Amino acid sequence: MPNSDFTVEDFCKDPNFIHWVLSPTDESNRYWQSFMVEYPHKVADIETAIDYVKTIRFREIDPSQQDLARLKQRIWNDIEKLESETATVRIVPWYQRPYWAAAAVILLVMSIGLGWRAYQANSSLTYQTAYGKIQEIKLTDGSVVTLNANSVLKVADNMADRPVREVWLEGEAYFDIAKRKGAKFIVHTPEAQIEVLGTEFNVNTRRDQTHIVLEEGKVQLSTDNQSMVVMKPGDMATVSPKSRQIQLKRVQPDLYDAWKASYIILDGKSLPEIINSLEDTFGVRIKLEDTQLVDKKLTGKLGTEVAEDCIDNLSIILDVDVKKEGDVYIFR
């Protein structure tokens, strides 16, 4: 989540920033313009990061070892030439330089799975929510998607006319899929592919994992490393980016989709889990000075319509004081 401490490298690595630069929308433009107004000292870094992201162009190929060797030699030749022309030069290997590292990250993000790469070419409509905002989206096939704060949804062109309806998600969304005979609906995330016919389920791709909670209907889930797994209502599937293995457990679905009504159900959730959710929703950081609070059990509901009110109410529930320093809330 972008904040006032972001460097040029951080912006270049941020998926939402990359999406904005490469596929801007009215909403993403408003968000980043608001960000620059709030943090004017970051404008120069943002402009530099934009140049780097726009400059990077990739072809989806598998370079040979010979190609890589030639590229590496060419880079070192350029470095040696620069060294000979400069009195004092500190040579840093190309792969350790921050902007080359950022470029490598962008390449990695764009090349995770065939389905995930495909959205750049096949999608024409992008929805993006700002921090603290929820949007209900009615798709042309009759399906309804509720997009949580700080999330991006890309929708395939001419969805209603396609035999396979496809969307790509980063963040969190609740899907109510319209049934169409013989027409699959596929949700792509960075870690997995979710295939449905007609059902309701929640998908969360935050914190480098994909979580799917099925409320009703039937979902088929697959990854690069695991074949199809069928989910039943009440199942939660978790997919990590490293193993790409699917882990199932039984949960209460209403604990995971209450955000649609702008609140969090605290029952059964750890405090770190609640804090992560608030940080992702509002784009802030929350710090616990008293580490014993981590083990505290909470019950009830916490409204999430307004960041300040939500965090103040959480401090009351925890019976602690809260102090704001920049975009960091400190519970003490």
TrEMBL record:
Q: Which organism is it from?
A: Spirosoma endbachense
InterPro entries registered for this protein in UniProt: FecR, FecR_C, Ferrdict_sens_TM
Q: Give residue ranges for domain FecR protein.
A: 126-220
Q: Which GO terms describe its molecular function?
A: sigma factor antagonist activity
**Pfam families, A to Z:** FecR, FecR_C
Give start and end of each Protein FecR C-terminal domain. Answer: 263-330
Protein name per UniProt: DUF4974 domain-containing protein
